């Protein structure tokens, strides 16, 4: 076994990425305080060819040195937009037919492995603040909530880790729908 060289990975350059079809996934960063987490969301969104990222509330926006440190250029490839009010943003997305999914532990959340994204609809996944989680304004507008099963003593993952797990799960289910046959 040998590690592949960069040129063997077949990755898109930023111009080709911009033109390539995206998966019907949107990331909503709900008041993230860590610039490193914001950068990590960009890098993950690039890896999974997410349609767009919305940065809301007091979430920092590019360009910023600390975001760039973890994004590694993904702020240039992934489309993004700032929206001050997460509630208004989610209302607008719902009017466009987007399914709103909160990544949060709630009294109605479904274990991630049991959730199947709705066919034929874009899904916006809301990832919340590192301490407070998804805001009440966002939860009130969510169509559903998923939680990642955990078996240790901690009650949550880092938001960037959660994004990687949730986005990969949704992408796999969207790309390979038999995973969601009922």
Q: What would your notes on this structure say?
A:
The protein is built from seven helices and seven strands. With 182 residues, the chain is of the alpha/beta class. It is 34% helix and 19% strand. The chain is globular and about 45 Å long. The protein has one domain: 3-Layer(aba) Sandwich (Alpha/beta knot). The model has no long low-confidence stretch (mean pLDDT 95).
- Rg result: 16 Å
Q: How many domain units?
A: 1
Strand fraction: 15-25%
By CATH, the superfamily comes out as SPOUT methyltransferase, trefoil knot domain
CATH fold descriptor? Alpha/beta knot
Distance between the termini: 39 Å
Tell me what the CATH architecture is.
3-Layer(aba) Sandwich
Q: Look at the structure and give the CATH class.
A: Alpha Beta
Strand order of the largest sheet: 3-2-1-6-4-7-5
Looking at this protein, list some descriptive labels.
alpha/beta, single chain, 182 residues
Detail the topology: elements first, then pairings.
Layout (H helix, E strand, L loop, with lengths): L13 H6 L3 E8 L4 H13 L2 E7 L8 H7 L2 H4 L2 E4 L2 H10 L3 E5 L6 E2 L11 E5 L8 H4 L4 E4 L11 H17 L7
Parallel strand pairs: 1-2, 1-6, 2-3, 4-6, 4-7, 5-7
Helix pairs in contact: 2-3, 2-7
